[in-house]
UniProtKB/TrEMBL annotation:
Residues 4-58 form the HTH lacI-type domain. GO terms for molecular function: DNA-binding transcription factor activity; transcription cis-regulatory region binding. This is DNA-binding LacI/PurR family transcriptional regulator. CDD domains: HTH_LacI (cd01392), PBP1_LacI_sugar_binding-like (cd06267). InterPro entries: HTH_LacI, LacI/GalR-like_sensor, Lambda_DNA-bd_dom_sf, Peripla_BP_I. It comes from the Bacteria.
Amino acid sequence: MRRPTLEDVARLAGVSRSTVSRVINRQPGVAPSHRRLVQEAIVELGYRPHLGARALASGRADTVDLVIVDDDPDALSANPHYARVIAGAVKALASNDIRLQIRLVPASGAVGAGGLKLGALLVNVRPELAQQLRRGYGWVVSMGRSAPRVASIEPDNADGGRLAVDHLYRDGRRRIAVIGGPESNPCAVDRREGGLRSIREAGLEPVVGQGDFTLATAERVTRRLIDEHPDVDAVFAACDMTAAGALRALTAAGRRVPDDVAVVGFDDGVIAASAGLTSVRQTVEENAASATRMVLARDGGRVFVPVSLTVRQSSGQHGDA
């Protein structure tokens, strides 16, 4: 199939080639109505400008936005997962004259497209908002399941939940608690549902706690779960930060890990490695780099990435096994 050209965009928008060029290079002198027509034509045709030529014509570097939705204003320093995403995106942009602009926004805040940029990489962005941002940016890629027509890099989160629970079941755990993440986060939902499905398929009754990917909430939820269900002998947490909170609460309650309660997290980053935490591994840096390249190319659909399990001390055998 022939790649759309500048002339194709101009023809569909009903404007001149020079007008399209000015819009693409963010130059003044274009009426708002014409600018909107050009942007819509770019989206409809899937037009991808030549990045080097565009930077040369504009006299400045292009920009990709990294949009992270998180209510914690200190999230970038508090959550190592975001550092891994940033590292992957920066690596993908290293050979281009392109800047990465990081936008940390609360879940309840308004998020608009940051002007006509190359596009955006989305983290924790709910599907309906991702669809809106796609129209505004022209092209976005979500790290995780998203809306139809929104390109995405999707770790197999549901299978990760299954891997975690199957591991715990094989180790003899029969009262398995699942601590999920935000309901607005499709990754968190898929991880929780994958774990719960595996528990039920084993003929067990799950214990469920609602987390939000933060340490403090995980500690509070874990304390409540073991108070209400003292027979819990395993915890599957939907991220490593949640698993770390569970470890704190279990230790404070005098529960030995893994002898009394085994713990499995999700991400397999620095938290898991430093805490001896068994964790479902997703290749965050590689996924972020791939997603960034998809933004640059304005190409790609739904890309599924397999996950694996890294077993460490937190899910060892029972002491009397």
